[in-house]
């Protein structure tokens, strides 16, 4: 029977980039156009297969992106096995914010943390202000996993969580 590995995963990024929407798409395959902004943080668990004899039980902390909650973030990324840093491809300034989260994780989180960068809202590509190349070359320069996603259409959402889980060392 498959072995289960429990991994703590944290989502970080500016308010309204779609962190909660990505989690809801992944965990419940739903999307809400009028999702309310997260207060503090939200916790969700979801299992994802790793291979034929291993399953990851992801303990997902979906943090609040509003500035007033910024000081809480270390409580959630400390001891996390992995982090997903999210930006909105239609909001260039959210990409800048994502870069600063990556820098903070590199400085303050454990050195073994696995980081994925997610450029969300690809369904709004007609309003894109961050190119795929900008995102992917930044991610590549720092050894981050990179996906462009849409919580609305579901594009790459399963892949994001699944590939991230596969990159976490199993102990
Ligand atoms: P905070 O909790 O404030 O940090 O925000 P958040 O990052 O959790 O964003 P949330 O998931 O609440 O989404 C913000 C808004 O963007 C909502 O209106 C969502 O419906 C919308 N949204 C999220 N993902 C997508 C997407 O992929 N495409 C489109 N078109 N809208 C999205
Ligand atoms: Mg949220």
Automatic annotation (TrEMBL):
<dbReference type="GO" id="GO:0003924">
    <property type="term" value="F:GTPase activity"/>
</dbReference>
<protein>
    <submittedName>
        <fullName>GTP-binding protein of the rab/ypt</fullName>
    </submittedName>
</protein>
<keyword id="KW-0547">Nucleotide-binding</keyword>
<dbReference type="GO" id="GO:0005525">
    <property type="term" value="F:GTP binding"/>
</dbReference>
